[in-house]
Amino acid sequence: MRRLIILILFLSLIPSGSTIAGSTVAGEHNLLLFYSNDVIGETEPCG
Amino acid sequence: MGGLSKKAYQLEKIQGLYEFPHLALDGGNLLFKQERVAPGLLQQKKITAEGIIDAYNLMQYDAVAVGRNDLGAGLSFLKEQAARAKFTWLSANLVHKTDKKPIFSASLIRKFGDLTVGIIGLTGDDGKVQFQDNEDAVILPWQDVLPDYIADLSSRCDLLILLSNNTTQQNQKITKSFEDIHLIIQSSPSSKNSAPKLTNKSLIAQTGKQGKYLGWMLIDWQQSRTWGRKGAIKELATKKQELDGINGRISRIERREKEEDLSGNSSYQNLLQSRDRLLSTIIFLENELYDLKKTGHAPSTYENYFIAMDIKLPDQPDVEKIVKKVKQNVNQAGRSKAAKAATTIDNPEMPVEKLVFAGWKVCAQCHQPQTDFWARTNHSSAYQTLVEQEQQFNLDCLPCHVTAEYGATKISDNDSALLSLPSILLQVGCEICHGPGKPHAASQAPNQISRKPAASICLRCHTPERDEEFNYGNDLVRVACPASNR
Q1: B280 and B352 share a domain?
Q2: What is the reported pTM?
Q3: Are the CB atoms for B78 and B66 separated by under 8 Å?
Q4: Is any Cβ of chain A less than 8 angstroms from the Cβ of B53?
Q5: ipTM of model
Q6: Interchain CB distance below 8 Å, A39 and B24
């Protein structure tokens, strides 16, 4: 039980803003970028 | 363009998964396969190009770089299409000959909250683009135009993206000259996907040729405006996974054993020690990243994915409708052309005697077992698949679904002839592999016919783009006729 309490204490010390997907720190921006090229090609389904 | 409806579906799906702002960009060479479309194909190619613009409008693309192939139907056609497009065609170096000002937009700025993204377009120039005399256009070297645009945009933007259809080598040179470009989306002639690669201070990425893939990146852009080593973040993720595993094992032991027995359980004690060590490492890494972010020095990071436009993927219904309509219109255009040629597919008056190909029925007169075997292969029904798809007048499709070409012998170059072939040539017939049979049929001389097709004969149609799994050795066995005694 004592170890569990220590674990919870440790985890509570980890700053929530530092997670990879978090966005709580100023200057950080998430952006979803789609990219493609050369759409026309041999992929037209002739049959 | 068959993959467009699948691409549209994936775009919608991924956008629905993340509540992040998004950008959709294309490196160019969107509309045509060649720098100049053959006159006979122009009508149907323009129909397809218009459909692609419609689809991109629906997919809410933001910007597309002008590629050399986008000029395939002439500059005026691209200008007309740019006027219809809801996205921006970008090229900083395709300029008027006279005043050297860009014909399309050179750049675009998008704002997402307090993040400003600048996008510049660059048209690749291998010196092959020949403009008509009446086209007031020239492609300038990137060295002439980029310095000013980059100086301007880098002062106003947090993230700077270049859409370039230059070669990888040229793009690498660009990264060396301009450290303020953060990301290059390229459209080089490579047929493979190229995951973002850090080159000097920029990432260079591209999807493979012919629209078979959609690339997408989740970017975590930081104040530092530099791409960082992903090592620390990857290490953190790995350590967290390890911690989950150890916690699971500890829980299982705790459920199984009585509390008083745990102190003597060496596995359990080892696990507790491992957990303590992992926690220390995780806290150290988390704090390090947090401090970097607080001071604005945290590296920007990304995750990159490629989605193959597999035939089994779902279609976005509105874009699917556009694709279907384009196919119908292309076929209709060919049908009208065929009618104009004053012949019909089964016109008995078609001057067969003028053709070098004899047709399978002539072959069957002496080679019945071989013809029977061929009749059971997909080659014999290749034209029928076009009929089923209502693409039997599509001039792009026809040359690989009929008997009209062998090496340098081509009737597929003549649109009218191709659209009015007699029914005995409306298959991938014997002569596609063995060569035009009329001289052999007349003389029956073995040296006037080819016994085995060279790989190049098969590869005319079974290109890697159309038939990724084609293997000359294996596939030849599948279609090889039984031996002939004659």
Answers
A1: no
A2: 0.78
A3: yes
A4: no
A5: 0.78
A6: no
